[in-house]
């Protein structure tokens, strides 16, 4: 009886060990369920942090980011969101530190590279921003690649790289034909080199893709109509600019331009 009891106990222990082994090695698509749970928890914390940031509740956002750090302090996604939080708080050194950490943990994390490029652009560090956008544009799978090319083009203009800017704007339109700002930027470039017909075509495309007029578009429309001799269009664009955007920089430029035209 004693031997039978010992044998039964051994059998039970072996069964328990096998069960424990099965639960710790269970995988889904090649990933352990424990790792999947951590990944899901991390994702939820980041979603909550971003949600609170969008509402201006940075303290609750910080709470969820701290919990995310406890899950994985080397996550590039976590450091990218930290950077965005510090940007909101105008803690620029800390924001940049987290962008650098995000990219050091994953140099192919294009979302963070795009965000970092925008951060550098706001600091007027245009050459550095341009390099970040150019690297980000090489990620063929990035869903916001058209936006990256647009940013790259705008940055190139700040650096007086007009040819690179034009190529970037054209690429952004190829990737996303309804990206209206690229048409406006190309229209401005065409206007500056005296290609008024091409500028007109591009400005029309821009207006077709915009639900409402913008001061930049109207001001370019005034100058373009003036060059093409279309006085009615010039007057209507100017009137819209003055009435819709009276405090805009473009309207101020338009008023100075009008005075110069009258004094000629």
Structural account:
By secondary structure, the chain is mostly helical. Among the domains are: 37-107, Tetratricopeptide repeat domain (Serine Threonine Protein Phosphatase 5, Tetratricopeptide repeat, Alpha Horseshoe), CATH 1.25.40; 178-264, Tetratricopeptide repeat domain (Serine Threonine Protein Phosphatase 5, Tetratricopeptide repeat), CATH 1.25.40.10. Helix content is 78%, strand content 2%. It is built from 14 helices and two strands, in the order H-E-E-H-H-H-H-H-H-H-H-H-H-H-H-H. Strands 1-2 form a two-stranded antiparallel sheet. Strand 1 (27-28) and strand 2 form a beta hairpin.
Termini, distance in Å? 120 Å
Q: Tell how many strands the DSSP assignment holds.
A: 2
**Residue ranges: pLDDT <50 for 5 or more in a row?**
12-25
The fraction of residues in strands falls at under 5%
Shape estimate: elongated
Helical percent range? over 70%
Calculate Rg over CA atoms: 28 Å
Mean pLDDT: 89
Question: What's the CATH class label of the domain at 178-264?
Answer: Mainly Alpha
Order of helices and strands: HEEHHHHHHHHHHHHH
Fold-level CATH name of the domain at 178-264: Serine Threonine Protein Phosphatase 5, Tetratricopeptide repeat
CATH superfamily of the domain at 178-264: Tetratricopeptide repeat domain
Largest sheet: 2 strands, antiparallel
Give, in spatial order, the strands making up the sheet with the most strands. 1-2
């Amino acid at each position: 009886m004693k031997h039978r009891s010992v044998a039964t106990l051994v059998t039970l222990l072996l069964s328990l060990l096998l069960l424990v082994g099965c639960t710790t090695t269970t995988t889904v698509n090649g990933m352990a369920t424990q790792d999947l749970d951590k990944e899901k928890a991390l994702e939820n914390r980041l979603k909550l942090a971003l949600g609170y940031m969008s509402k201006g509740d940075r303290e609750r956002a910080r709470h969820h980011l701290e919990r995310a750090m406890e899950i994985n302090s080397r996550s590039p996604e976590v450091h990218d969101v930290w950077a965005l939080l510090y940007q909101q708080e105008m803690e620029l050194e800390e924001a940049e530190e987290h962008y650098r950490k995000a990219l050091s943990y994953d140099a192919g994390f294009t979302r963070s590279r795009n965000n970092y490029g925008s951060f550098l652009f706001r600091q007027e560090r245009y050459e550095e921003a341009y390099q970040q956008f150019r690297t980000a544009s090489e990620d063929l799978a990035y869903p916001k690649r058209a936006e990256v090319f647009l940013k790259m083009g705008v940055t190139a203009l700040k650096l007086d790289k007009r040819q690179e800017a034009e190529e970037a704007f054209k690429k952004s339109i190829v990737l996303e034909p309804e990206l209206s700002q690229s048409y406006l930027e190309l229209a401005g470039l065409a206007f500056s080199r005296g290609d008024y017909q091409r500028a007109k075509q591009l400005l029309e495309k821009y207006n077709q893709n915009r639900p409402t007029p913008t001061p930049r578009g109207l001001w370019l429309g005034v100058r373009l109509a003036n060059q093409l001799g279309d006085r009615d269009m010039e007057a209507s664009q100017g009137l819209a600019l003055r009435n819709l955007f009276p405090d805009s920089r473009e309207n101020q430029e338009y008023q100075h331009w009008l005075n110069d035209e009258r004094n000629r």
